[in-house]
Design brief:
The chain is α/β, with parallel strands linked by helices and 344 residues long. It is 43% helix and 11% strand. Helix 3 crosses helix 11.
Length: 344
């Protein structure tokens, strides 16, 4: 990679305007050097600061290794988990896809914060197991698992009616359920595959938001849509998945505008590499699983993948603390998008 070069430009036009003004008033014209220095500094002071560069040379020349960080191969230790008790007490939260992965992280975090949590998924054994585990902790709030296929809108209506029947209100909706297909180019995806993925990854978000909003408006609640880092930056061999997440980001901003007068906030969370069962399954399918996991760690500036609990804590912060935030896409990526990378 060639070194970065930056040449400081001088604001000549404003200088000429001021020079003409001095001349029209019959006053002595200040020295051009002083005017150029003041324009470069951004204010009119008494000190002229000449450039350190010689004539004809760039003012700033960075070395080849400027900005390079050698990320250690060993994953860095996780920060300690904070005390979440009484962060969201008495509230009612719905989480789709809450039996595993990031959804499970959200369920655990919101339950620890004192919220009743209704979560759905397809695996009854996993879902009921998590429900039983959380309710055995002896807290006053409850966890409730509901089997539901979020691609079927009638199941989403049942999810809402069950929540209201059990708890009488809805304070927060976390649209999380979704799927990332195996890598393929557009030539290998069918139109039907794209439509099916949109039904699961996006239409379910739209539908459940629509069904929850009458209840969210009553309590001035909030919606959190799980988007993705690749919906912003793209991803190779993922044109369908990236498209669903780009749609999620745009939908979040548009809905935030419409619901602001009703006191409902709508935000998105865009995770990067989070250690989930999907990530584990992919790495275990590689010839060298340990090398695959290490490669995933080194993508982040922080030298590791994120956790499902960290993702859940970001959602809790949005729901409980960031009450002047709406229409914002919150990136949780460990700095994966920072710095230069090899592109070709």
């Amino acid at each position: 990679m060639r070194p970065l070069r930056c040449v400081a430009n001088r604001a000549v036009a404003p200088v000429r305007v001021v020079q003409r003004r001095w001349q029209s008033e019959g006053r002595d014209d200040p020295t051009p050097g002083a005017w150029h220095s003041r324009a470069r500094e951004g204010h009119y002071g008494n000190v002229s600061a000449p450039s350190l560069a010689k004539p004809g040379e760039e003012r700033i020349v960075l070395p080849e290794n400027y900005g390079w960080q050698d990320v250690p191969k060993e994953p860095r230790p996780l920060p300690p988990s904070p005390d979440l008790s009484d962060r969201y007490p008495g509230r009612v939260t719905i989480v789709t896809g809450g039996s595993r992965g990031i959804g499970e992280g959200c369920v655990r975090v919101f339950f620890a914060a004192g919220s009743h949590v209704v979560f759905c998924g397809l695996d009854v054994e996993e879902g009921e197991g998590l429900e039983k585990e959380l309710n055995a902790l002896g807290q006053e709030n409850r966890a409730l698992f509901v089997k539901a296929d979020v691609s079927r809108t009638e199941k989403l209506k049942q999810l809402v009616s069950t929540t209201v029947a059990e708890f009488g209100r809805i304070d927060c909706l976390i649209n999380n359920a979704g799927w990332h297909p195996p890598p393929k180019t557009i030539d290998d995806f069918s139109v039907e595959e794209l439509q099916d993925l949109f039904q699961l990854n996006f239409v379910s978000y739209f539908a459940l938001s629509k069904y929850c909003l009458p209840h969210l408006r009553k309590v001035k609640g909030n919606i959190i849509n799980m988007s993705s880092w690749v919906g912003i930056h793209g991803q190779a061999q993922a044109p369908t998945y990236a498209a669903t997440k780009g749609a999620t980001a745009a939908f979040t901003k548009a809905l935030a505008i419409d619901e602001a007068p009703n006191g409902v906030r709508v935000n998105a969370v865009s995770p990067g590499n989070i250690w989930t069962p999907l990530w584990e399954s992919w790495s275990n399918g590689e010839p060298d699983p340990a090398a695959a996991r290490e490669a995933g760690d080194r993508v982040q500036m922080m030298g590791r993948k994120g956790t499902i609990e960290e993702s859940g804590r970001l959602c809790l912060c949005i729901a409980a603390d960031l009450t002047f935030t709406t229409g914002v896409d919150h990136i949780i990526s460990g700095g994966a998008e920072l710095g230069y990378g090899v592109k070709a």
